[in-house]
Design brief:
Helices cover 38% and strands 19% of the residues. It is of the alpha/beta class. It has 2 domains: 3-104, Enolase-like, domain 1; 108-366, Enolase-like C-terminal domain (TIM Barrel). The protein has an 8-stranded parallel beta barrel with strand order 4-5-7-8-9-10-11-12, surrounded by 4 helices. The protein has a 3-stranded antiparallel β-sheet with strand order 1-2-3. The chain has a 3-stranded mixed β-sheet with strand order 6-15-16, with no helix packed on it. Helix 5 links the parallel strand 4 and strand 5 (145-150). Helix 5 crosses helix 6 (183-201). The chain is globular. It binds D-mannonic acid and magnesium ion. Residues 37, 170, 210, 212, 262, 312, 314, 316, 339, 389 line the site of D-mannonic acid.
């Protein structure tokens, strides 16, 4: 089955998405997400200028060989732009292979290991009480796991707090919005939030929290200890991950489970944390980690150390990524949880999909392939809009980790 064409579709139904569509001489096509939030055009150029010319005429069935060809062939390995581009090609090829086989992708991967994919939603509020109410709203919608982020007194634009409504979109201005960060106030607020959440919602709901890379290792250890009585499902990205030894320090002090890896793009980024058992959940996802082909290897490595998967699923990853991730999640033996921030109705319309939510679980559906497509004429109605992620500064103006 020969690849006859491949093209990149950029659309902004509320936020930017980059999608690769690959077509074959047998009339079967596949799509893959290539979105890198705030740096979308870099991946577009990588695909259009450097990868697509290499794909035309190749056998679409040779997924592994094409992956190696694009990865090794670049000479310049890894990095978010390269791996998002490879991830899009890989996802589109798995979509094609599964469609050609007449099977949902999870069947090709080895079949379902569970009945549904446990997901967590995002609840946030301007203060603790509003966040507590929001978590209640998610519980009412059927969620069994909820991430909770609350505004912090005196902190403008605290991470994870939306500007109203269900859809939290941090990349919403042409130039990066300047937000404030105050570690001391955050460390006072976060444990109180979870204490209150347990008081109001009881012990059964799974609660998660994202620190978003903002604490030093010893501060992260302190927060992990303070959160222990409230038994979180996980504490995410508690300190920047460039220095992976830092997680040893955190680990020595707390039994709060740790999740890391949404910004990783290769198995090599994950290796030390997994092999040294410094984390409990690995967050790499389909688009940013080079597609299903590499994600399978990461999960295999993680399984040896009882590390479970917890794929990134923020709204900057398109439904094409979510669909592929759900097939992976339904199959992967060491599944933990899947992040699920709902897309807006406009985005859902651009990407018709077979996945469905019920009682706290998503199911990828049984349509052949990933079950996600792109409506190109609708996509064309939403042209690209330059948007960047915010930055954070400390109260004295020092640039911090957003
Ligand atoms: O866990 C998460 O979902 C976040 O860390 C993301 O929302 C992250 O901020 C965005 O993906 C950045 O584009
Ligand atoms: Mg995160």
């Amino acid at each position: 089955m020969k690849i006859t064409s491949a093209r990149v579709i950029v659309t902004c139904p509320g936020r930017n998405f980059v999608t690769l569509k690959i077509e074959t001489d047998q009339g079967v096509h596949g799509i893959g997400d290539a979105t890198l939030n705030g740096r979308e055009k870099a991946v577009v150029a990588y695909l259009e200028d450097h990868l697509i010319p290499l794909l035309i005429g190749r056998d679409a069935h040779r997924i592994e060989d094409i992956w190696q060809y694009l990865y090794r062939g670049a000479y310049w390995r890894r990095g978010p732009v390269t791996m998002a581009a490879i991830g899009a090609v890989d996802t589109a090829l798995w979509d094609i292979k599964a469609k050609a086989a007449g099977m949902p992708l999870y069947q090709l991967l080895g079949g379902a290991s569970r009945d549904g994919v446990l997901v967590y939603g995002h609840a946030n509020g301007a203060d603790i009480e509003q966040t507590v109410d929001e978590v209640g709203r998610y519980i009412d919608m059927g969620y069994r796991a909820v991430r909770a982020q609350s505004g912090i007194p005196g902190v403008k634009g605290a991470y994870g707090v939306g500007k109203g409504g269900m859809y939290y979109e941090p990349a919403d201005s042409t130039l990066p919005e300047e937000t404030l960060w105050d570690t001391s106030r955050y460390l006072q607020t976060a444990p109180k939030l979870f204490e209150r959440l347990r008081e109001v919602h009881g012990p059964d709901i799974e609660l998660l929290h994202d620190v978003h890379h903002r604490l030093s290792p010893i501060e992260a250890a302190r927060l992990g200890k303070a959160l222990e009585p409230h038994h979180l499902f996980w504490m995410e990205d508690c300190t920047p991950v460039e220095n992976q030894e830092a997680f040893r320090l955190v680990r020595q002090h707390t039994v709060t489970p740790l999740a890391v890896g949404e910004i990783f793009n290769s198995i090599h980024d994950c290796r030390e944390l997994i092999q040294n058992q410094l984390i409990d959940y690995i967050r790499t996802t389909v688009v940013h980690a080079g597609g299903i082909t590499q994600l399978r290897q990461i999960a295999g490595l993680a399984a040896l150390y009882q590390v479970r998967t917890g794929c990134h699923g923020a709204t900057d990853l398109s439904p094409a990524c979510m669909g592929a991730a759900l097939h992976f999640d339904l199959w992967v033996p060491n599944f933990g949880i899947q992040e699920y921030m709902r897309h807006t109705p406009e985005t859902d319309a651009v990407f018709p999909h077979a996945y469905t939510f019920k009682d706290g679980y998503l199911h990828p559906g049984d349509a052949p392939g990933t079950g996600v497509d792109i409506d190109e004429s609708l996509a064309a109605k939403y042209p690209y809009e330059p948007k960047q992620l915010p930055i954070a500064r400390l109260t004295d103006g020092t640039l911090w980790n957003w």
